[in-house]
Write a structure and sequence with these properties.
It is built from 11 helices and 8 strands. The protein has about 260 residues and is of the alpha/beta class. Strands 1-8-7-6-5-4-3-2 form an 8-stranded parallel sheet. Helix 5 links the parallel strand 3 and strand 4. The longest helix has 17 residues. The chain is globular.
């Protein structure tokens, strides 16, 4: 376990400007992002699943995940955080064992989400991880999908997210993540009412980074957007020798997920 990299990664969440992560999915994308000067590497669970022939949504086998991480760790010179979706199990002990395996490989952090599961299940998983690895070890970024999955009415989304995130922090999460939360006022509320660094997601062509930063985001990531951009270019390039035409060669999340 690389305690140094975990502490180094933790410290990146207190910097100004915030930590900006261009999400990667294999050793090649990691090498390119690292060469650009990035201070950390972060996988996108969707991108990594697609790169290995699986749909996003907890379908990736653990063995495939670990092999992919081994190849990324081999070339990594900066801290690496890995998105493990819901931990690929409903068993807190099995999730903790997976996180331990990642930590033993030198992974500095993980993203873990509640998805559509009851919030109490993620609390149990975080507790199990901390019991297995201890505090101050791997950085746990706890994600709530209240906005992304529309788990409650729009009026209740902010308060529901804050309640869940505070519960996750209380049991050991180091950071919090709310994908699909884009309102600056909502970001500001979470930032002020949850005592942990806040991760939000921006699109690759986002022109509102200053707005996200000013609202209180400590960490900004791109999710699967870099993968979609890269493979949309591949799709367009592959069509040219075949003399096929299309109005729009851009791939989408849904189109990619339907391929597997």
């Amino acid at each position: 376990m690389s305690v140094f990299k975990s502490e180094q990664f933790r410290n990146l969440h207190t910097n100004n400007p915030p930590l900006f992560l261009v999400n990667i999915w294999d050793a090649a994308s990691a090498s390119i992002v690292q060469a650009s000067g990035s201070t950390a590497l972060a996988t996108s669970s969707a991108s990594l699943a697609w790169a290995n022939g699986y749909a996003d949504g907890n379908a990736l086998p653990r063995a495939v995940l670990l092999r992919a991480i081994d190849s990324i760790v081999r070339i990594s010179k900066v801290p690496l955080t890995v998105d493990i979706e819901n931990g690929y199990s409903d068993s807190p002990d099995q999730v903790a064992e997976l996180v331990l395996q990642l930590a033993e490989r030198g992974v500095a952090g993980v993203n873990i989400e509640d998805g559509c599961d009851p919030a109490v299940l993620l609390v149990k998983k975080i507790n199990a991880i901390r019991s297995q690895l201890g505090t101050g070890s791997i950085f746990i970024n706890a994600r709530t999908d209240v906005y992304l999955q529309g788990l409650v009415t729009r009026k209740r989304q902010l308060n529901e997210s804050i309640e869940r995130l505070n519960n996750y922090v209380a049991c050991g999460a180091d950071g919090v993540f709310v994908p699909a939360m884009t309102s600056p006022s909502d970001i500001a509320s979470v930032s002020s009412l949850v005592a942990a660094p806040l991760n939000v997601m921006a699109s690759s062509d986002s022109d509102n980074l200053d707005e996200l930063i000013n609202a209180g985001a400590n960490r900004i990531s791109l999710g699967p957007a870099p993968f979609i951009d890269a493979y949309s270019t591949l799709l367009e390039t592959s069509k040219k020798p075949l003399n096929t035409t299309s109005r729009n060669h851009a791939l989408t999340y849904d189109a990619l997920n339907e391929m597997f």
